[in-house]
Amino acid sequence: MDIRSQISMVFHLDKCIGCHTCSIACKNIWTDRKGAEYMWWNNVETKPGTGYPSKWEDQNIYKGGWEKQKNTIKLRAGKGKGLLNIFHNPHMPTIDDYYEPFTYKYLDLIKSPAGDMQPTARPISLITGKPMDIKMGPNWDDDLSGTPDFARQDPNLKGLTAAEAEAMFQLEKMALFYLPRICNHCLNPACVAACPSGAIYKRGEDGVVLINQDVCRAWRMCVTACPYKKSYYNWNNGKSEKCILCYPRIEAGLAPACMHSCVGRIRYLGVLLYDADRIHETASCQETDLVNTQLSIIMDPHDLEVIRAAKANGIADSTLKAAQDSPVYRFVKTWGLALPLHPEYRTLPMLFYVPPLLPVMASVTQSGDEEQKKKLNKISKVWDDKWLYDTSMENIWGTIDEMRFPLKYLANLFSAGDEAQVKIRVKKLMAVRMHRRHVTVGDIPEKKAAEALGETGLTPEAADAIYGLTSLAKFDDRFVIPPAHREQALELLEDTGDLKGKAGFGTKQPPERGL
Amino acid sequence: MSALHNFLFIAVPYMAVAVFLVGVVYRYRVAPFTVSSLSSQFLETKDLFWGSVPFHVGMIVILILHLAAFLFPQTLLAWNSYPVRLLILEITGFAFGLSFLFGSMALLIRRVTNPRIRAVTTWMDVAVELLLFFQILFGCMIAVGYRWGSSWFASDLSPYLWSLVKLDPHTDALKAMPLMVQAHVVGAFLVVLILPFTRLMHLLVAPFHYLLRPFQLVIWNWDRKAMNDPGSPWNKHKPRNT
């Protein structure tokens, strides 16, 4: 047992309101530079949709992640193949797959000479500086805009029947949710494996995946290999860049900017302890076991055996305490509510999502059936045309089976197509709601609430705890950041001994393009 | 004429190699951030394929053939002693030379005509591409105009290069060569001279070590176990990611 600690995250999708504040916070701090304008280390996608960059989930195009081969796994981008493709990489997205960064010539509004027409601020390319037609943006398909071009092309619609897929886009039934994405800081990162220079590495202390800018030589294989397309190529200075999980903030005990600024408070950050010996075995397991196996290498921080192994590995007591208080551990392991995004890429992502219940909750039936309406209770919303929105809880799981969002779609996103994994989590979320509804409003009988909880294996105490961490959690409950022990190192990448008597630290050269 | 010849055939080569050695080490150690292939594939990918691939493949073969003629002249002459082998070698070399030429032309045209690529073009990029282009063009013209270069390189030019290595320069053979060959030799040393100041640096950091390293790379910034052990001495060497 080789216990290591990983700073890990949970995003609660039911709470995401799609405001993009996280993206803006990140952009303002890290990517507001020439060559990085198009990069959104944090982005929020509307699902269904093709995302950013367009169709990033389609690995037939981009060759990201790992694929299973007998008892082991193979890097899709390839080692020898990667070197052979070094002069021209056929699987690399280009700027047009993201969008051409632009601004507007605002000064024209003020400085234009008087004329017959109103002056306009024309869009200007931030690459060439010339006027351009805007064809795409980072969230061009926000809120299902351009559905025929974007949502209908979503790779996750595979496995749905044509009728199911079509039903999702009918105006009356239309359902969507937001998927905020940052780097997953994987346990088996494909970007690290694909970097010919060896510039990308995982920090042992907290598992943050970083690119050493001094070693990166722009071979660009990380862009291809990351199945989440979270490694970006800076076209200006010829270096790849990615989310750094705001490690300077984390080392100072602050939450990453995207998490700190999250309006919906959907984000949780904490330590997970995992068994590094079992990474390869886990990444090469059967498709159907992916979720369970990945969760099984996350170890119980209260287990004495685990604590002993962690201490033997030099993990500080403060980090162990943070692991025991970790909100991520509770969501992922204790309550079994969260799932990794696309586990089938086999990179063992360490960012987990609580699947959304809201688009699931209401079922819509096309009906003129007055009998059906009578069966609804008072709080059910009845549209008085032929569409019937059933939000009743009359049948405990009725709405899950006939919900607006096919479970298959969520399963394609979060559990490699295993609907049972999503279903149990959605049921748990529903059971907590019924329990709290019973406690606070009281129109659901205790027996029914208890029945729902019982079937999902939750106790009322657990349900209250889930409710507490979901709805009431304060800043320090959501972000449990272990101390970086700066008494041992001024900054994790520097050694105090090297910096004594010097002023400042960090990059001493301006990050300018070489000749 | 003799002074100019001495400058071009003796001074320039020594200068070039000296500047190359100092420049490369200095840049790699002092400004590693600037060492990059500066790929522009992200901005334009279709035309790059027709430029970059023939350019690099041609370059690798041509470079290896030149190095072979320089390092193993006797072997090459022995190989060339059968006309069929000589023909095979020359035709192969010329084919890759043309590929090299075609690629460099395609890259030059792409760089000049594509507005996005022009936005990331420095004056040094243009200088390097022009220098390389003429160097390749001259090489191809020599291959056509002064037949069986692989043999006379090995027999006449290789001794000149070795005389430079032995710090006892003999330029008589080169002085007797046609002007175009002389220009090609001086051009080659110019490429060596400016290499540390250009994007050609990426040639020296070609990632062959990738084939040997394990997939995953985990770096512990400090050794907590040693640090917490009062018996271990304070370690001033931080781990490196190289």
Task: Give a description of the structure.
The complex is a heterodimer of chains A (515) and B (242). By secondary structure, chain A is of the alpha+beta class. In chain A, the strands form seven sheets. A five-stranded mixed sheet of chain A has the order 13-12-1-15-14, with helices on both faces. A two-stranded antiparallel sheet of chain A has the order 2-7. The model of chain A has no long low-confidence stretch (mean pLDDT 87). In chain A, helix 19 (407-414) packs across helix 20 (419-440) and helix 20 (419-440) runs antiparallel to helix 21 (446-456). Chain A is 33% helix and 14% strand. Chain A has a domain at 358-475: nitrate reductase domain like (nitrate reductase domain fold), CATH 1.10.3650. Chain A is built from 24 helices and 17 strands. By secondary structure, chain B is mostly helical. Chain B has a single domain (2-209), classed as Up-down Bundle (Fumarate Reductase Cytochrome B subunit). Chain B has helices at 2-30, 46-71, 73-80, 83-113, 115-119, 123-145, 149-165, 172-175, 179-194, 224-227, and one strand at residues 218-219. In chain B, helix 2 (46-71) crosses helix 7. Chain B is globular and about 70 Å long. The interface between A and B is large, with 68 and 59 residues.
